[in-house]
Amino acid sequence: MSTGRQALVVRDLRKRYPRVEALKGISLSVPTGEIWGLLGPNGSGKSTFLKCVAGLLRPDGGELEVLGAPPSRRTKEQLAYVPEVENLYRWMTVSQVLDFTAAFYPDWQGESALELLEFMRLEPNAKVTALSKGMRARLRLITALARRAPLILLDEPFSGIDPASRERIVEGIARQFKGEEQTMIISTHAVGDAERLFDAVVFLQEGTITLQGNAEDLRSRHGKSINDLFKEVFA
Amino acid sequence: MKRFCKLLRKDLEASRLPVLFLSGATLALMAYVRARLANSPVFVETAESYWPSGYLVLAVMLPITFFPLWLVWRSLQTLRSEWREDTIYTLMALPVPGWQVMLSKLIGLCVEYTTLFIVTVGGFLLFLGRVLELDRVLPGPAWVAVNAFWVYVGGLLLFAALAVQVQLAFVVSKMVGRAQGLVALWAWILAVWFSTRVSGLLQPLFSWLPPVPLHELLRLDELGEEVLLLVYPEKYVVFGLVTVLFFILTGLLFERHMEISS
Question: What is the rounded distance in angstroms from the CA atom of residue A139 to the CA atom of residue A127?
């Protein structure tokens, strides 16, 4: 459901770590209202790319426009970022995690959060330490989906998660995504679970884009699903 | 303000358990020393000297030597734990200025210091005041309160400055890819050296400040002897200003130059 506006514009983005060049000149434009899949094997630069967009890494070169501006405190307020790692404070309860998140983002939707808690089958009084990995992943997802954030970045939301939780997470994303005003980028190498969500996909390998396009076009052009295409490209 | 309060509450909650544990341990130590003193024949025989036993050294010196080390460790730990537990991802993604993140941690540390100070002094007076007959040695409760207050204020300022230096050193170390421990240590040594050096060099700028009559603040005349104790504040004022600069620098580095590379 593209609106013609660009939520994210990236030109020749470069990022180098001491021993490796993680991003080697990435360029893409993500229109508002779409869900994009950022697909690639481990070490392809997916997380680095999302961290640059989220303002957690400074690019070494290129340009980055997040919702029309370079990454800053203001863009941090407007985007919801769920990292690959377990970033929750372990001593908090589920409701404390949500309260904490709510305090920082004016677009927080308390009612949505409660609905999502129920949908994701999480107890508000449960301690984060008492949750399974799948439950913690669902809780981290709620911190992003309960907001009306114009840009949502999900880094490997299905990594190490049991199939039941994966299905819940995919359903949760599909239910909560507000296509007319939101844009979402999901990085994953578990393509099969999320394929139905994607409007477009970007294949990333060793810091460069190897394939990019509308998901439906790619399916019809190659005569196979994105998941099969992924397996073929990264075999 | 709401955001800062949330950050502060998070940092206070995170320090609650260690502070409760240390407070309990301190009070238990005081109670133990009191029990040993009360039953000590040596103490009974030499009650007039008021300083009869090594237990007192234990009761006083252990908190006095351990707590500053503990608080310096905590200054490091409050930041280090964010990286170790990956919550730095949450913290750095928040739309708040870096100085607020640092200030909430600093206030949390000052609350820890205050709690431990109150527990140590209060516990000492509560458990050992009567046994040691402090009311016969010291001028009175008001004198004790005033002195305890100034010792508290002095310790708090010193500790806060130290905590800021540790925060700066840690943040600087996180900006390099390798040998972060070594970088943190050197950054801290440099920060201490810079503070003392600049304090010495720039203190003439504040030479117009009058000396602080510490003997009056501490009401030393009530001890029965004429004592003149003056503190010349210019060096400390510069040291304080350098600490504020360090604090601002730490906030800026955290917000604008910090990266999560792993």
Answer: 11
ipTM over 0.90: yes
Q: How many residues does chain A have?
A: 235
A25 Ramachandran zone, left/alpha/beta (phi>0; psi -120 to 50) = left
Q: Which residue among B10, B97, B257 places its CB closest to the CB of A100?
A: B10
Q: Which residue type is seen at A102?
A: A
Pairing of strands A151-155, A183-188: parallel
CA–CA–CA angle B18, B37, B121 (5° rounding) = 40
Identify which of B10, B85, B94 has the shortest CB distance to residue A76. B94
| Token pair 């600049």: residue | B198
Distance CA B106, CA B84 (A): 19
pTM of this prediction? 0.88
- Residues A217, A52 contacting (CB under 8 angstroms): no
Q: Which two tokens stand for residue B66?
A: 């351990």
Note whether B260 contacts A: Cβ–Cβ < 8 A. Answer: yes
* Nearest CA among B190, B197, B189, B230 for reference residue B212: B230
Q: How far is CA B259 from CA A16, A126, B3, B207, in A?
A: 12, 32, 22, 42
Residue B57 has pLDDT above 60, yes or no: yes
pLDDT in tens, B153-207: 999 999 999 999 999 999 999 988 788 899 999 999 999 999 999 999 999 999 9
Q: Does A16 touch chain B (CB under 8 A)?
A: no
Whose tokens are 């949390």? That residue is B108
Residue A91 in contact with partner chain B when CB distance is under 8 A: yes
* Helix, coil or strand: residue A32: coil
Residue A230 and residue A218: Cα distance in Å, rounded? 11
Burial of B240-259, coded b for 16+ CB within 10 Å and e otherwise, reads bbbbeebbebbbbbbbeebb
Encoding tokens for residue B130?
Answer: 């009567």
Strand, helix or coil for residue B13: helix
Let me know how long chain B is: 262
Cα atoms in the 13 Å half-sphere on the side-chain side of B190? 12
Chain-centroid distance of CA A88 in Å reads 17
User: CA-CA distances (angstroms) from residue A124 to A99, A100, A146, B5?
Assistant: 11, 13, 15, 22
The number of CA neighbours under 13 Å toward the Cβ of B209 is 17
Touching B: A residues 45-84, CB under 8 Å: 51, 54-58, 73-74, 76-77, 81, 83
